[in-house]
Task: inverse folding
């Protein structure tokens, strides 16, 4: 009923291939955007900003980057955390070497560095496939984290080995660092995430996206129909690492405020991978759904016992949390291996034909 | 020039200059190598029979050890605790097959891989909820494992071999031999291999997929328990061990995902080489801690030359 | 007891900005009873919690107000820690961040949130400088103090003895482990000993054979250990295995847990660790705890005579003294975070006061001031005698003339890096 398409006629191929062939999709998206841009910032508390809104956006962006590589181009990577680290450290060096640089520009530029590193570690993908590649990306993961630890230049020879975000201004407004307001940080993150998402939607629908999908589905076949695998795979690594790098810079500059090398260690990579897979590989929407679930779940679980008046020791609660997250991953994989995005897709299909399913 | 000599000359003169120390380094590497190989063995068994990349193998090691120690703390005598742990591992294998694998049969590899990561998290949470998160001591003495050390003096130097390590190596060898005997000379073992070679053909001659999966996961559980005991008596039992379990992954790459020989050779090779690299190159030249990545980079280099690993089956692709 | 930290309410309070005071004082602890570091955490947290339980049970809290000592589990993860901080800050009068990583993240926020950080014996050494770090406290001794006291013990009283010695510094490769390096480097330069830093990665804590092979090859005269959690047990076992002389092996206070040494028992005899607290199984406080806490089944602690449990007691005692001082200064029961800051900067733990508390000898007397947020109580060497830790030295005092200027320099650098950084100009830090 809500999703009836009757009366929406398409009179040209152009209209048929538009971003939103169904008008209701556009309306729904409009509502979500209004929520994200106007309603949440007006109503959210400091706690909600810091533990839900900002992390959900940043994690979705990182998952989006991974999804380009794994979901669209079919190259499984377990090194996402380290590439986020490259972005974060690059951004830190940029703002400390050029203090005059606009912080937003610095964040967008830091992705370039992680893209370059991503391409270097993407070269083996030309010869190595599947799980072999996945584990090969672990080489990037462990080597880069080790480098963050050992290369003192990266953290300006700070004794603690950690990087600390200084207070950064744009036209007198503090946008990063301890003095920045959560709302400001939120808007910057939201702006960058919206921009990159739009870019990705169009990229994956276009020529390049189709070449990625062909490579994913069978790379030899793709090569035979004239796709240059070298170019396509390395481009996937570059684009993916760029987005992941920007997400890493946002992660440290707009949310955490400080970072030590082991922050970018393997648990972070896995967390991003969970988001991408539970959300749905090869889907843009899925990254957001996955991030909401993975980031929101522990926060909600932590609050449940107190809301229902149950006294559980916080350590036990944490153990149970880990258990529940593990169980939920299995549960979601069993009910819908293609992720939450497919689940939504199915619901939408049902709604489109409702109430007459034939 | 100095740098070149530090890379290419000094390490080797050091090795020759203190041969007893060199032997000690190799021995230490060998012992960790055995443990890597054991974890990798569990992976290979499961991968061969079901094409599942079982990420949870490393955690099963900790889980088995933790169950053993936890049950002992609750009052079970050591050997009863071992028996009970085996029961728990069997229950785990059965549950995994029933709850996780059966509904996911036929899904893409990556989905099954993710499911084993789910199992990993679940086991961590479950183990800590029941037995607590603190570091525990392995019940080495109660199990009758000798704890002294042999002191040898090769080349007039000093070489210390821990009884625990020697036992671990011996038991690992025994385990591998019995596993090979089992796979080659028993009905069940052959069924496992048949499944690994061709699912369809194996099913058509009446081999039960479910039974074999439970069996294979149970064997992986037994291997995990042995590994857990060996490793736990070196370093205590806690989920901090999980980080070391990642080391089994490059072992798999170097050895090849399907090869038992590969797992063993790869494990020993990585164990020894990473230790030598760390002691003779990593510590003097690179600030140490190279063990975190050396195995992975080595695996990457090997793969660039042989994409299926040293002992893996040739990958033949058809369009 | 109302645990009003439900999501919605915490949010609502955060919106209001001001901390609402209930009938209790909320002092959350960002604990870590899970993860690789749990073995260090559990006895400490037990001690902290039990002391507050004792105050509630025996005296009905402090100044008649109950203490709500709640734990928020972090698993030593910085991310979880920051979430806990955000979750609790609306109501809390203090934050106890525990890991150096969490401390570093929370530190800049406290200026805007106006909540004191209490990091007893950990955190960031320059926090001693109260002029720069208005909201941070790390009494009774900082890591730099600890490192200096260890060097004194090695030198056996005369720092000239350090010349030409080779000292290996086995540390966790983490902000915490690197914390004392600047001081050690400076001392190496000043006294002519060779410093050999040996990092232990997080993934190597339980498999340190490479590090100990290096120690065997380099043959240092002393090994100084800056370990945490599972790293300590791993190092001590390796030391026994490679036959490193135990009397040349000295740890920081977080490497003095009975359980770690119990793993090697007799073989660990002679191992020493610097400590600003000392276990006193016969102290009057233990009898009180037995009466009011243990016998009522209110404690989960196992080894209550261990170094760590008793250190936990001392930690909570310092917080309690801060609260009591604040109540007296401001003549109010329900204190605000800002009032607690005043309390914590005016702690005066004299010999007599410790006697009154039934804790004489468990920590050296010290006092804090607006400028001095550490107190620099000094510490003792504890030695493992095969079964337990015993006191093995007189009270050592770090040389403030060496550390003070370093602290000031580092604190000012921190402030400059984080400009604009508010200073408390009402007090002048010692230098």
Result:
């Amino acid at each position: 009923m809500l999703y009836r398409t009757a009366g929406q006629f398409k009179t040209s191929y152009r209209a048929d291939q538009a971003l939103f062939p169904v008008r209701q999709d556009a309306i729904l998206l409009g509502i979500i955007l209004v929520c994200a841009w106007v309603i949440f910032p007006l109503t959210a508390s400091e706690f909600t900003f810091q533990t839900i809104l900002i992390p959900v956006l940043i994690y979705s962006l990182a998952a989006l980057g991974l999804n380009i590589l794994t979901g669209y181009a079919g190259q499984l990577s377990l090194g996402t955390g380290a590439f986020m680290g490259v972005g974060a450290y690059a951004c830190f060096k940029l703002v400390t070497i050029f203090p005059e640089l606009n912080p937003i520009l610095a964040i967008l530029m830091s992705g370039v560095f992680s893209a370059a590193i991503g391409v270097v570690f993407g070269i083996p993908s030309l010869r190595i496939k599947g799980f072999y590649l996945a584990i090969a990306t672990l080489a990037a993961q462990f080597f880069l984290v080790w480098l963050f630890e050992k290369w003192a230049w990266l953290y300006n020879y700070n004794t603690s080995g950690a990087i600390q975000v200084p207070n950064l201004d744009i036209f007198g407004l503090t946008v990063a660092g301890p003095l920045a307001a959560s709302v400001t940080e939120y808007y910057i993150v939201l702006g960058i995430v919206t921009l990159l998402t739009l870019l990705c939607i169009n990229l994956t629908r276009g020529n390049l996206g189709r070449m990625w999908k062909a490579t994913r589905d069978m790379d030899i076949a793709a090569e035979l129909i004239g796709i240059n695998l070298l170019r396509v795979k390395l481009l996937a690594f570059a684009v993916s690492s760029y987005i992941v790098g920007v997400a890493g810079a946002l992660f440290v500059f707009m949310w955490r405020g400080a970072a030590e090398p082991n922050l970018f260690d393997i648990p972070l990579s896995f967390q991003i991978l969970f988001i991408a897979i539970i959300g749905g590989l090869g889907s843009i929407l899925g990254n957001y759904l996955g991030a909401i679930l993975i980031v929101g779940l522990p926060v909600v679980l932590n609050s449940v016992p107190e809301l229902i008046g149950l006294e559980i020791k916080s350590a036990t609660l944490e153990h149970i949390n880990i258990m529940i997250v593990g169980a939920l991953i299995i549960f979601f994989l069993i009910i819908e291996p293609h992720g939450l995005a497919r689940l939504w897709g199915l619901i939408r299909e049902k709604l489109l034909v409702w109430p007459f399913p034939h | 020039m100095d740098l070149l000599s530090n890379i290419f000359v000094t390490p080797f003169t050091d090795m020759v200059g203190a041969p007893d120390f060199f032997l000690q380094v190799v021995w230490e590497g060998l012992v960790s190598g055995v443990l890597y190989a054991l974890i990798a063995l569990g992976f290979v068994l499961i991968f061969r029979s079901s094409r599942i990349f079982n990420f949870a193998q490393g955690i099963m090691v900790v889980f088995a050890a933790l169950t053993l120690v936890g049950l002992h703390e609750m009052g079970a005598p050591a050997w009863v605790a071992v028996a009970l742990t085996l029961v728990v591992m069997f229950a785990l294998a059965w549950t995994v097959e029933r709850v996780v694998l059966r509904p996911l049969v036929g899904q893409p590899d990556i989905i099954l891989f993710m499911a084993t990561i789910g199992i990993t998290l679940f086991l961590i949470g479950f183990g800590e909820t029941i037995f607590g998160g603190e570091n525990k001591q392995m019940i080495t003495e109660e199990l009758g494992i000798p704890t002294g050390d042999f002191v040898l003096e090769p080349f007039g130097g000093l070489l210390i071999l821990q009884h625990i390590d020697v036992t671990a190596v011996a038991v690992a060898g025994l385990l591998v031999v019995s596993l090979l005997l089992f796979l080659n000379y028993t009905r069940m073992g052959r069924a496992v291999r048949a499944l690994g070679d061709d699912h369809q053909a194996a099913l058509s001659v009446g081999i039960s997929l479910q039974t074999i999966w439970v069996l294979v996961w149970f064997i992986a559980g037994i291997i995990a328990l042995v590994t857990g005991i060996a490793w736990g008596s070196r370093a205590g039992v806690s989920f901090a061990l999980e980080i070391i379990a990642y080391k089994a992954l490059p072992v798999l790459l170097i050895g090849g995902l399907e090869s038992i020989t590969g797992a063993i050779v790869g494990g020993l090779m990585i164990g020894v080489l990473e230790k030598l690299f760390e002691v003779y190159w990593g510590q003097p030249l690179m600030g140490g801690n190279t063990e975190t990545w050396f195995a992975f980079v080595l695996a990457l280099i090997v793969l660039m030359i042989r994409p299926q690993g040293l002992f893996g089956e040739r990958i033949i692709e058809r369009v | 007891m109302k645990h009003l930290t439900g999501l919605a309410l915490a949010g609502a309070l955060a919106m209001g900005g001001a901390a609402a005071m209930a009938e209790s004082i909320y002092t959350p602890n960002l604990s870590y009873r899970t993860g690789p570091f749990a073995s260090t955490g559990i006895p400490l947290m037990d001690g902290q919690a039990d002391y507050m339980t004792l105050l509630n049970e025996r005296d009905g809290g402090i100044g008649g107000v109950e203490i709500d000592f709640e734990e928020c589990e972090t698993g030593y993860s910085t991310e979880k820690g920051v979430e806990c901080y955000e979750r609790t800050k609306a109501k809390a009068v203090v934050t106890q961040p525990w890991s150096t990583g969490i401390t570093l993240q929370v530190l800049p926020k406290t200026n805007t949130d106006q909540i004191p950080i209490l990091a007893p014996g950990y955190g960031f050494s320059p926090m001693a400088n109260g002029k720069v770090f208005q909201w941070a406290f790390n009494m009774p001794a900082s890591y730099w103090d600890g490192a200096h006291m260890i060097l004194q013990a090695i030198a056996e009283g005369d720092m000239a003895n350090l010349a030409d010695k080779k000292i290996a510094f086995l540390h966790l490769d983490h902000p915490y482990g690197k914390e004392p390096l600047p001081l050690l480097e400076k001392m190496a330069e000043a006294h002519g000993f060779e410093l050999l830093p040996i990092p232990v990665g997080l993934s190597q804590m339980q498999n340190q054979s490479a590090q100990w092979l290096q120690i065997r090859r380099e043959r240092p005269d002393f090994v100084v250990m800056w370990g945490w959690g599972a790293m300590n047990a791993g190092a001590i076992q390796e030391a026994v295995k490679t036959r490193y002389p135990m009397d040349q092996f000295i740890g920081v206070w977080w490497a003095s847990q009975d359980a770690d040494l119990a793993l090697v028992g007799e073989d660990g005899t002679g191992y020493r660790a610097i400590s600003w607290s000392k276990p006193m199984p016969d102290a009057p406080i233990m009898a009180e705890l037995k009466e009011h806490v243990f016998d009522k089944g209110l404690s989960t602690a196992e080894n209550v005579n261990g170094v760590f449990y008793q250190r936990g007691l001392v930690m909570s005692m310092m917080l309690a003294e801060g609260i009591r001082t604040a109540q007296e200064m401001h003549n109010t029961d329900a204190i605000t975070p800002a009032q607690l800051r005043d309390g914590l900067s005016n702690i005066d733990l004299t010999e007599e006061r410790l006697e009154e508390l039934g804790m004489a000898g468990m920590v050296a007397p010290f006092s804090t001031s607006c400028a001095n947020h550490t107190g620099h109580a000094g510490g003792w060497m504890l030695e493992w005698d095969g079964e337990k830790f015993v006191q093995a030295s007189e009270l050592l005092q770090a040389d403030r003339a060496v550390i003070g200027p370093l602290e000031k320099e580092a604190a000012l650098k921190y402030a400059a890096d984080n400009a604009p950084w508010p200073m408390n100009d009402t007090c002048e830090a010692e230098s």
In short: The longest strand of chain A covers residues 173-176.
